[in-house]
Write a structure and sequence with these properties.
Blueprint: E1 10-13, E2 23-29, H1 36-41, E3 46-56, E4 59-70, E5 73-77, E6 83-84, E7 86-89, H2 98-109, H3 114-121
């Protein structure tokens, strides 16, 4: 089974995620990614984006998401908008639907030390 197709997706078995570690590519504070409700309710909220890469069987993939600092806690902002070229394969061998892929990616991202990188950006 190929892990990278001509469509640009890197196919990774869901069960393999726990063995893959992310490497930081870039992160920045970017107020334009803040959701309107965040800006309206949290005057001290801060937001930005972050991009990470990983490797599966020597094939590089990327995962990016927006984050926010809300009441002193760094959170993933709008998990439904996680950006990636990963296509997760379920135990059946079929691809997970995009929203389910994002759920599994979010769960996996939370095991990675990405917040340590974001803390270094904060004033």
């Amino acid at each position: 089974m190929m892990n990278e197709a001509s469509d640009g997706y890197v196919r990774i078995p869901r069960s393999a995620l726990s063995r893959i570690y992310l490497e930081h590519v870039t992160s920045a504070i970017d107020p334009s990614v803040a959701t309107p409700d965040l800006a309206a309710t949290q005057s001290d909220a801060m937001a930005g984006y972050t991009e990470w890469c990983g490797r599966w069987r020597e094939i590089e993939f990327s995962v990016g998401w927006d984050w926010a600092l809300v009441s002193g806690v760094i959170v993933v902002l709008a998990p439904a908008t996680i950006r990636t070229n990963v296509l997760l394969l379920m135990e059946s061998g079929f691809a997970a639907p995009p929203m389910l892929t994002r759920v599994y990616l979010l769960e996996w991202m939370e095991t990675q030390p990405w917040r340590e990188t974001i803390v270094k950006l904060l004033p």
